Amino acid sequence: MLTASEINAFVENGYIIRQNALSETDIQTYRNAIDRILHKCRVEGLHANHLRYIDGERDDIWGVNNIFHPSIREQALVNALAHPEILDVIEALIGKRLRYHLCTLLVSAERKPYHINWHRDSAPDGEVPRETLLSRLRSHVQLNGALYDDETLYIVPGSHRRELTDAERTVLQQTPKAAMPNQLTVKLEPGDIVFYNSSLLHKGYNIAGAKRQTLHYAVVVAPPQTKPANPESPTSQEWLNEPTFLDRLPPRLKPLFDNWLKYG
């Protein structure tokens, strides 16, 4: 599915964009599911502890975490992780021994824009040793799947392979929302998906009036089979342990969640 040049681009630049990965039917199915989730969160008041609030104020949201929770779960969005244009790409980038990590929605706020600081996911201040960064080049994949035109993600290509420059450090420490040297706006049309390394310097900026619904999923390489299993089921997302959830997983997702249950 992926060419050698695409895989090399992911390793070297930290991201690739797959255009028209989702069909019109996929897009409408996922939009409908997200509309139902947002109604539950914004109107019915469900799932409040899992929402991403703007500036910490509980009057507007820009994301919904843990979307597989039974209070809001939509089977279409579970199945989306097994979509060949998603899972086949992830396997080509980092291998077939995978573990679930997260599934989230990123959406436009209703009343005001949001703008989050430049960061690396593993280190908000961006300070990570080069050796650690190089060890993570093919350890995980994070993706944004756009259901509307989306120019929200800003990245610094190649920054996942090195420590901060002095100029980058100055922005992070003094003006963490300002323009970053060599920044790139990731421009997606409905159905496009960007697959990227979360150690890239990146930020999110959704301007007022720009409608956004984006699938935000992440998968990591599972530990080696020689690693002892965790004797207890993980408790951070205990709803993923439930037979009612596990029994309805698409067959291709079962190993990802088996590894979640095995290793936590």
Mind explaining what this structure looks like?
- The protein is an alpha+beta fold.
- The chain has one domain (4-223, 235-259): Jelly Rolls.
- It is built from 8 helices and 11 strands.
- The strands form 2 sheets. A 7-stranded antiparallel β-sheet has the order 1-9-6-11-4-3-2.
- Strand 2 and strand 3 form a beta hairpin.
- The radius of gyration is 18 Å and the shape is globular.
SSE topology sketch:
Blueprint: H1 4-13, E1 15-18, H2 24-42, E2 51-53, E3 61-64, H3 75-80, H4 84-94, E4 98-107, E5 114-115, H5 130-135, E6 140-146, E7 153-155, H6 166-174, E8 184-185, E9 193-196, E10 202-206, E11 213-221, H7 243-246, H8 254-263
Antiparallel strand pairs: 1-9, 2-3, 3-4, 4-11, 5-10, 6-9, 6-11, 7-8, 7-10
Please supply descriptive tags for the structure shown above.
264 residues, alpha+beta, Jelly Rolls, 7-stranded antiparallel β-sheet, 4-stranded antiparallel β-sheet, 20% strand
